[in-house]
Amino acid sequence: MRRMRSYTARPSKIHPLKNQSAVVCALVMGLTASGCSQVGMQVGTDDLKTPTILTGSIPSAADEAYTDLSVEDRQSIAKNFDTLDQDLASGAGLEDLKLPWLNGISGNSGTISEINSTAFAQTGCLGFKTTANTISGIKLYSGTACRDITQKFAVTALTVADA
């Protein structure tokens, strides 16, 4: 019997992986390691609701304040300071002044008190205390509000105060 040859099929050769084993091993390790690790990072965000905690330590009073009071709450507090332009210009005592604030979006409210304007002339910042009636209860906070480039006040620091 005579064998028939096919012109379309070629005989195949299997090459041993003598020198290529290091390359194949590195490729397999790279593919398996890339599935195990992933790094994600937000870029260009102004998320002030949750501050970055750089250590795994116990949360601070500032972390708790920024969790309890949203960006809109802090904006509602700051709007009250914008109404004090005449009092700040005259140097009138603001320590006894009480200003209510309300955030219509979250329903949180409170009262600003103990406004400290001693450093306002040098820094453009006011110290204050405020209560906040939130879903987590009523708490007392200490804060600082400073004027930004548009001469509007913004809350720059906020921590839970000892009652």
Summarize the structure in words.
This is Surface antigen domain-containing protein. Residues 51-158 form the Surface antigen domain. It comes from Roseibium alexandrii (strain DSM 17067 / NCIMB 14079 / DFL-11) (Labrenzia alexandrii). The chain has 163 residues and is of the alpha+beta class. It has helices spanning 21-36, 61-68, 71-82, 85-90, 120-123; strands spanning 99-102, 109-116, 125-134, 137-147, 153-160. The protein has a domain at 61-160. 16% of the residues are buried.
Which features would summarize this protein structure in a list?
163 residues; alpha+beta; 5-stranded antiparallel beta sheet; 5 helices; 5 strands; 28% helix; elongated; Surface antigen domain-containing protein; Anti_2
Strand content: 25-35%
Query: How would you spell out the order of helices and strands?
Result: HHHHEEHEEE
Overall average pLDDT: 75
Structural class of the secondary elements?
alpha+beta
Instruction: Give the termini distance in whole angstroms.
Output: 105 Å
What is the radius of gyration?
32 Å
Shape assignment: elongated
| Main sheet overview | 5 strands, antiparallel
Poorly predicted runs = none
Helix content: 25-40%
By DSSP, the count of extended strands is 5
Strand order of the largest sheet: 1-2-3-4-5
- Count of runs of 4 or more consecutive helical residues: 5
